[in-house]
Write a structure and sequence with these properties.
Blueprint (H helix, E strand, L loop, with lengths): L10 E8 L5 E8 L5 E7 L6 E3 L5 E3 L2 H11 L7 H16 L5 E3 H15 L1 H11 L5 H11 L1
Parallel strand pairs: 4-6
Antiparallel strand pairs: 1-2, 2-3, 4-5
Helix pairs in contact: 1-2, 1-4, 2-3, 3-4
């Protein structure tokens, strides 16, 4: 592994930790030349997932886009970045367990919404309002009544 500070090709692994789900390995490394430390993450490279949008167009699954949508919904709530990472991990893992690598965006939204609903109702309503395209106050009211 090349050092990101001095570009030297010889670095040493100082510490290795596996994630709870064993899907990611975190390695703490140290450069033998500049002695600076840095962290790398190792994941199994998977077959790309394809998202089928509402208009029928297909695009490659983008984990960052998924997290960005949740971040917007979770602003000024008690939902932390760790929770968002956990939901992203769970949703991606569940999608990889599907029979097909092509998944409708509606299904992904349902997976996220279900998890947000369990941890923060405000974040859930915000996410649902975009995901389900609430048009007027009545749409919000219907969803709020379901929560109550």
């Amino acid at each position: 592994m090349k050092c990101p500070y001095c570009n030297h090709k010889d670095t040493e692994v100082v510490e290795t930790r596996d994630s709870e789900d064993l899907g990611t390995t975190r390695r703490r490394r140290e450069c033998s030349i500049c002695n600076k430390r840095f962290t790398t993450y190792e994941r199994i490279e998977n077959v790309p997932l394809i998202v089928i949008k509402k208009d029928g167009k297909k695009e490659q699954f983008d984990r960052d886009k998924l997290k960005h949508g949740m971040l917007k919904a979770c602003e000024k709530t008690m939902v932390g970045i760790e929770d968002i990472e956990t939901i992203a991990d769970e949703v991606e893992r569940e999608m990889r367990g599907f029979d097909s690598v092509e998944i409708e965006s509606k299904k992904i939204g349902q997976l996220i919404a279900g998890r947000l609903k369990k941890i923060d109702k405000v974040a859930y309503i915000r996410f649902a309002s975009v995901f389900r395209r609430f048009v007027d106050v009545e749409d919000f009211e219907k969803e709020l009544n379901k929560l109550l």
